[in-house]
Amino acid sequence: MSKDISYDAIMSRRSDIVKDSAGIDFARFERGGVAFDYEAMLAATGYTLDKVREVQFEASVGNTPIIELRNITALARLFAKPGYGARIFIKDEAANPSGSFKDRRAATAVYHAKRSGYKGVIAATSGNFGAAVASQAAAKGLKCIIVQECYDSRKTGQPEIIEKARKCEAYGADVIQCTVGPELFYLSLKLLEETGYFSASLYSPFGVTGIETLGFEVANQMKVIAGGFPDTVVCTNAGGGNVTGTARGLAKAGCKAEVIGASVNLAGLHMASDTSFNRKSFTTGHTGFGVPFASWPDRSDVPRSAARPLRYLDRYVTVSQGEVFYMTELLANLEGLERGPAGNTSLAAAFSIAMEKPADHIIVVQETEYTGAGKHVQPQLSFARRNGIEVKFGNSSEEIPGKNIILPESAAGIKAIDLDLDHMRQSLIRHAKETSSEPLSDFDIDFLAEETGTTPAFVYQNLG
Amino acid sequence: MIDSLISKNTWVSIKKIILEPERRTSRIPDETKATPFIMWAKGRLQRDSQIGDEVTVITRTGRLESGVLEEANPQYILNYGDFIEELLTIGDDARAILFGDGNE
């Protein structure tokens, strides 16, 4: 009880707190230099794909339906050139217990926490993952603390995050809400040390292997529904776990589908800005997380992130806030599915991609999420307007995050924009070189080639 | 106000300043650094108090948290916001393009 819990004291004990609460000794996988043994780290948790499937089945997580979006596909075909307009399918992950695919990530983590004798779990998250951890903890009789970045300094909260706090509390969680800033990490470390609870990090191997089942199900369900594996799978990308787990699961099923990441474009908004905080309408799934975490995954709350999207991404696109809101309305109006909005980021991207692909091409959007008061197109656009954001119809590619939200004039105006993956790969390679105290070994070069989904030649070329 | 006494065991929210502006990390924008880092928690009040008092609560996980008493029986203030007329247009346009205009 007499421990110094000041900011400096807690931060100085950071590595011990992380080690004790993560259930993994990350140092075991370091290989000197910039490299570490990624596959060994994922395997060391002992949760094979079959075991994760069993854990999730017992927790009523997963095995969600896949729905063909026939009307949305028909609409895309009206705007595509003759013979084009891919078939779009969606995996209705909102059917999971807490309403999103995040239950998959939480199920394994909470199962492991229980089995390892932890009395509770802590997660620092403002999004669906908090609800998922709280839900899984409730069902396992574990205590749960969720730490959220929720309010600006005037205590105006994002409606979506306030809804998430309500949902977490509905599952019996203790919810701590904070103002904007990275010091939230200090608070979660303090709570982890104080309680001795398990750290349910989105970036730990539990958080990522839990998603492999999603990719695995997509591949196998499509064989039954459409007679073969999908050609393209679109995943919303933020911290990288969704892309990583899905791609790994697809590969484990033997499916070589193209994997496309999609994020909402929030370029120009600083994620730690008190004044920008309520000028955005998306609190995750956006470029503010997606781009930095792809370019350098080890910036999370664990020493080595299990989410390493550049290893798996074939393509990475952005869509605007207006396009995602528009798509959310189409999903409700044309398919009778009221979901999202944030979870429809990948669907907006898929609609645009479908117009580029031939009519026999199959695209799977691998998630939906629940919707409700606060977390819905209507209150989120209303909140934006009240915060001085102009909401109007127009050319969505002209949207300026923090200034306006431009709804496309028609569905033909939904246009995913490609990000330069090579640029992110180069950035990762350069960062590795700069942060390494020693010259890179051959082992490091091979590691960086795997990290970037490229070749040793590409790595050498970009070392400068 | 005398009648604003909140009884022990009432479910309340409290506010606590974790870091004053000068103690905050330098890795944040100036507008954020100008404000304190604040947290809010909820729990059962440990003794009769008034709004604004420094109090202690017991949270859902049985932890003690202290801070300034802000609200008794805190509400979830969530709704569907002001009506957004544009949303009607999106749905109606898409239906008209795909299924034809029902009013014709």
Question: What is the third-level CATH name, the topology of chain B?
Answer: SH3 type barrels
Number of domains of chain A: 3
Question: What is the strand arrangement across the widest sheet of chain B?
Answer: 1-2-3-4
Question: Using only CA atoms, what is the Rg of chain A?
Answer: 21 Å
CATH class of the largest domain in chain A equals: Alpha Beta
Structural class of chain A, by secondary structure, is alpha/beta
Describe what you observe in this structure.
The complex is a heterodimer of chains A (464) and B (104). By secondary structure, chain A is an alpha/beta fold. Chain A folds into three domains: 7-24 and 100-203, 3-Layer(aba) Sandwich (Rossmann fold), CATH 3.40.50; 57-98 and 206-418, Rossmann fold; 421-461. Chain A contains 18 helices and 13 strands. Chain A has helices at 7-12, 14-22, 38-44, 49-58, 70-79, 102-115, 128-140, 159-170, 184-195, 205-226, 241-252, 287-295, 321-335, 345-356, 377-386, 421-435, 442-451, 456-461; strands at 66-68, 87-91, 120-124, 143-151, 174-179, 198-199, 232-236, 258-264, 315-319, 362-365, 390-394, 404-408, 417-418. Chain A has a seven-stranded mixed β-sheet with strand order 1-2-10-7-8-9-13, sandwiched between helices. Chain A has a four-stranded parallel β-sheet with strand order 5-4-3-6, with helices on both faces. In chain A, helix 11 (241-252) links the parallel strand 7 and strand 8 (258-264). In chain A, helix 4 (49-58) crosses helix 10 (205-226), helix 6 packs across helix 10 and helix 7 (128-140) packs parallel to helix 8. Chain A is globular. The model of chain A has no long low-confidence stretch (mean pLDDT 95). Chain B contains two helices and four strands; from the N terminus they run βαβββα. Helix content of chain B is 17%, strand content 31%. Chain B starts with 10 loop residues before the first strand and ends in a 5-residue tail after the last helix. Chain B is an alpha+beta fold and 104 residues long. Chain B has a single domain (2-75), classed as Roll (SH3 type barrels), CATH 2.30.30. Chain B has a four-stranded antiparallel β-barrel. The interface between A and B is large, with 64 and 43 residues.
